[in-house]
Amino acid sequence: MTARLNGAQPYALGLFRIVVGLLFACHGAVALFGVLGGVDGKGGTAATGAWPNWYAAVIELVGGVLVLLGLGTRIAAFISSGAMAYAYFKVHQPEALWPIQNSGEGAAMYCWAMFLLIFTGSGAFGLDRLLTRRTATQEQRSAGQTPVAA
User: Fold this and answer.
1) What's the angle, vertex CA 13, arms to CA 125 and CA 99, rounded to 5?
2) Contact, 65 vs 77, CB < 8 A?
3) Which of 70, 108, 122, 138 is the most buried (most CB within 10 A)?
């Protein structure tokens, strides 16, 4: 049973990454474009350049899309995790100690989910893996070719 679960681990991580990235990108799209009800439930958006809401939304949208695609996953997850840690400690935590009391569950969960992706990488289905394989294949081909001496 354990061997079977271990064999499925890259696929489970890949699906986890895709879902987290999609949901994270949706948060950014809500604040930037007012889709899915917007920030006020009526299609409102974060004011352009407003600190920290607009910048957080840009990080959420770009970071979420990169994590969703599995492209630069570790770097995107690092920046996204830091943004969510900032959001939790500067916006939510001053209201109350526990996330359930200060409405910071989302920030805390995204922070830790992205933190996990820093260490696990993209898993299966990610463009990171595809690009790594392609680069490794090209390196093996070029290593096998010997230059012709004149």
Assistant:
1) 130
2) no
3) 122
| Cis previous bond, 52, omega within 30 | yes
Structure tokens at 121: 């990488």
**Cβ proximity of 28 and 60 under 8 Å:** yes
Percent pLDDT > 90 in the chain is 70
On average, the pLDDT of the chain sits at 91
Closest to 125 (Cα-Cα) out of 28, 14, 6, 21: 14
Please give, one letter per residue, the 3-state secondary structure of 92-109. HCCCCCCHHHHCCHHHHH
Q: Is 30 exposed, middle or buried (0-12, 13-18, 19+ CB in 10 A)?
A: buried
Q: Looking at the predicted structure, is the pLDDT value of residue 149 above 80? A: no
Phi, psi of 44 (to 5 degrees): -70, 155
Beta bridge partners of 12: none
The whole-model pTM stands at: 0.85
Q: Which two tokens stand for residue 66?
A: 């990169």
